Amino acid sequence: MTKRFDRRKFLLYSSATLTSSLFLKACRTPTPTATPAASPTAAGTTPAAPAASSGNTIKVGILHSLSGTMSISEKSVVEAEQLAIEEINKAGGVLGKQIQAIVEDGNSDWPTFAEKAKKLIDQDKVVTVFGCWTSASRKAVLPVFEEKNHMLWYPVQYEGQECSKNIFYTGAAPNQQIEPAVDWLLANKGKKFFLVGSDYVFPRTANTIIKAQLAAKGGELVGEDYIPLGGTEVTPIITKIKAALPEGGVIFNSLNGDSNVAFFKQLQGAGLTPDKYPSMSVSIAEEEVKAIGVEYLKGHYAAWNYFMTVESPANKKFVEAFKAKYGKDRVTNDPMEAAYIMVYLWKQAVEKAGTPDDLEKVRAAALGQTFDAPGGKVTLEVNHHLSKFVRLGEVREDGLFNITFATPEAVKPIPWNQFVAETKGFSCDWSDPAKGGKFKAP
């Protein structure tokens, strides 16, 4: 049975808000992610629990939703992480030790994510955690990793407006996904936008950014609506879209999980086809297309940094390895690629640091790491985000994406949004403790 989004639990466990006004107010309030890095033994900071990397193994945690509404997306991310771990172990491991992964199910429930994060750190004594998909789950575990001064690698595009010492973000920041998608739509598909999203922090914040961008670039917002994460009652939203865009227009979609199944089936059923109502999605990739049905998505668009159709030796190797392990009919997608490469980036950081246990040394060693990723060379910047290529794709007959736009080079990440007035001019630099997670750039 699909686990519905619990608003009360989210408000208890998420440091973000569900309204734009409160979000903007929060940007002016100091938070742990907006202060310079503290030493592991500074007041108010709990040193990380001793990690169990003795003997011939190094323990790491994997924390994703294997059940509930988000399992449609997160199961394949776990598989990509496990593939990377298997490859590394076969090649000799990390510092001569084998990686032992302890997998936990966040169950599409944010308090559960926080509980499992504590278990992995305190009980299992992992040296790092690879995990989360939704920003709600990341916000739920963030206080855990900051309190314990531990380390999370997060593989999914997100809304930005965060830059934690304790998180490495290997998905896209808004300037590497959302903003280029809006620019392309304005230039190619029209000026009128209707925003659709799940009712939690990522879609709400993403749409705050999109509205500011539209205002700055001559676009027009004609409507905005949300449904609970996991909700399937989408008829009211489709009715509003038809009323607001009687002659057609752009739908910017930030629905997550299996809400997309109901949305796209009913969108087509209502006659809102992509020739007049093109949608741009930021959480639908190859895996979701396969689950929803290509017949409902053909001709619609998605914005990512990686598609399975990228032509490169590194991608050919990645796709072949994934299919060999999980089945010839399987597909790869952007979050899977980001999850796969973050395991390798962590490995490189540990080897440079010479230890998996000293997390301060590993964090410092991670900065500047590069990797020949399937989607193109990435670099881990001082703001704990990756420089990445940006791509837009159109769903084609076989369920894969025809790449319609790609940047000629990797785009540097900007965590603090430059369209939103409250964060314009701010930056993040964890290589300099005097700057830390949020400072006013000159």
Draw up the topology in text.
Blueprint: H1 7-13, H2 20-27, E1 57-64, H3 71-90, E2 98-105, H4 110-123, E3 129-131, H5 135-147, E4 152-154, E5 167-169, H6 178-188, E6 192-198, H7 201-217, E7 220-227, H8 235-244, E8 250-254, H9 259-269, E9 279-281, H10 286-292, H11 294-297, E10 301-304, H12 313-326, H13 334-353, H14 359-366, E11 370-373, E12 376-380, E13 386-387, E14 391-395, E15 401-406, E16 426-429, E17 436-440
How would you portray this structure in words?
Helices cover 37% and strands 19% of the residues. It has 442 residues and is an alpha/beta fold. The strands form four sheets. Strands 7-6-8-9-10-14-15 form a seven-stranded mixed β-sheet, with helices on both faces. A hairpin with a 6-residue loop joins β16 and β17 (436-440). The longest helix is centred in the N-terminal third of the chain and has 20 residues, at 71-90.
Strand order of the largest sheet: 7-6-8-9-10-14-15
Shape: globular
How many β-strand stretches? 17
Give the low-pLDDT segments. 1-50
Question: Helical residue percent?
Answer: 25-40%
Which descriptors would you attach to this protein?
single chain, about 450 residues, alpha/beta, 7-stranded mixed beta sheet, 5-stranded parallel beta sheet, 14 helices, 17 strands, globular
